[in-house]
């Protein structure tokens, strides 16, 4: 009974059967003339219809193709409609994710040429403003950049004695730069794109992406570091949510450089970025920014390779003092802490930086550090390296420094006067002697009575030291005479030497 009831129910027609039956019905309604006309039209536009077709999942991953129709990436943007350009853009991005081994250029020569041409097309397409950066296209762009840019650099075999690169070393250039340059241009245009949705983009340009991008600053190719500098600066400016993380990552890189390896190729570029970042700090400065100065920038004076980034470091330090003049004493104290003892070239850089810092220093901060500061300057005035001594003398030609010194001359002149007199008597270089004489005349014009008092005090100290030296000489002569008087002849008893009795109790 049950089987009879079920057999009378209408059977469900499959979708394929329904579509086939619909097609057959519509086909029966058409005439032979219409079919012939449609056939001719199809032959006429067959080339354009072949432009849109399915591609493999290797070129268009399933994770990025949800709701998007893939297009053959080898087709030009001119050969597809405006609706299909977005899908073609994503297909071309995924085609460029393939990375070829540069050690075997002949093996993948054709594929490499296709990739290069595709990258050029992508740059032209984005620069024209026709691109639409939806979430699938943003994901494809970040994936393509990560595949081509993020890589591990080979070990550094060119180890120099100073612990870093020197000016005499030959620059290293990446052999795959022709493609890398286009990828960097594409990434920069992507970040600068006016219609870019930052809320969606920050999901893909995330912390992991930024960390890998910062790792690339260790590249030995200066062209790559210059591109990275521009891109990271744009990311810092556009993605406000990433700013604290970027500052933290850069601090970690500098910590590792200063206290562990003393080897990194991109410190100068990172400091260039932060030079403009510091200019944008709001007042009053946050405690975080002051800690960055004390724990990151000031210790950067320690490494031997400071010459490779000293100009950028000085700019950052001076920007901090311009923002908050109360930081000047902290900076000068840190500079004195890391002052070089045996490296004259490094000492010259420190004196130049000190002059720029003093130009931005207010009186109250100067008075906190003027005693240790001018003790160090006095040592520089006496340096037997004539360039160091000459540069220290030229500090006094700075109007601002001369003004603050004149207002505190009662403390400063006694600290440097002895060094000037010592130069007059003992220094070997004629140019340094001329600077010393000019400086003594300048100080006499500043305060003649104080100079005379310093001269009188120096003479008294010399007389006291001469008297002490004379007393020491007389004491040693008496000791020598007493030692000679107490010597007795050695008696020989048999084969044994009989030593005289010791007159000093042991």
TrEMBL record:
The B regulatory subunit might modulate substrate selectivity and catalytic activity, and also might direct the localization of the catalytic enzyme to a particular subcellular compartment. It comes from Phaseolus vulgaris (Kidney bean). GO terms for biological process: signal transduction. This is Serine/threonine protein phosphatase 2A regulatory subunit. It comes from the Eukaryota. GO terms for molecular function: protein phosphatase regulator activity. Residues 1-27 are annotated as: Disordered. One of its GO terms (cellular component) is protein phosphatase type 2A complex. It holds the Pfam family B56. Belongs to the phosphatase 2A regulatory subunit.
